Structure formats: structure tokens, C-alpha cells
Amino acid sequence: MSGKITVFISSVTSSMEVRKHQMKIQDVLSGAKIDHEVVDVSANKEDLSRMRDIVGDSHALAPQIVNGDNYCGNYEAFDEAVENKTLKEFLKL
Q: Which InterPro entries match (predicted)?
């Protein structure tokens, strides 16, 4: 059973690399016509807590990808799934 794909991002990162990763995730999902929502954890502490609860790491940083309450992975795992053409499996779709 799958929920909704959620991409947790942070709009207040100073890292250009993190910004590129967040954009790539959104671009790939949109390009593949995969319905998803983007949640900015820098805008709401409750969203940050929810992301960290799902990930199971109290220090986890965005971007993180989840399906409902099931953790899919971080950017590196996402990028690997795209490379290996296993995106739907990675997203638990």
C-alpha cells in the first residue's frame, strides 16, 4: 500500500550542492509524472520533526524522500535508483 510521495526540502540551505539535489529530485519526479508534494522543513519545525521521525534519525537533513510514512531514502539513494532505472521500486510504487 502506498501513500503520497513527499520530498522534504530546506529552502534555507547555503549549500549549492543541496539546492541542486533538491531541484533534481523535483525535476525527475515531475518529468516522470509521479505525483508528489514538496514540504519545506525550514518553514515549520513540526515538518522537520515529522521528517526525522520517518527517517529514524534525529539529525537527518533535507532532502529526504518518503512514501506516506515509509522512508524511501536520501538524495544519494534516489540518484542511484534513477541511474539503475529502479525509481518506482525505490519510491515503493
A: Glut_rich_SH3-bd, SH3BGR, Thioredoxin-like_sf
* pTM confidence score: 0.94
pLDDT in tens, 41-92: 999 999 999 999 999 999 999 999 999 999 999 999 999 999 999 999 999 9
Show Cβ contacts of residue 32 under 8 Å, excluding neighbours closer than 6 positions. 87
Beta-strand runs (E) in 1-93 = 5-9, 36-40, 64-67, 70-74
Domain spanning 5-90, CATH class: alpha beta
Please, how many CA atoms are within 13 Å of residue 36, restricted to the half-sphere of its CB? 25
Largest CA distance in the chain: 36
Sign of the CA dihedral with 71 first, then 38, 33, and 35 last: positive
> In the chain, what are the domain boundaries?
5-90
> Within 10 Å of residue 44's Cβ, how many Cβ atoms?
11
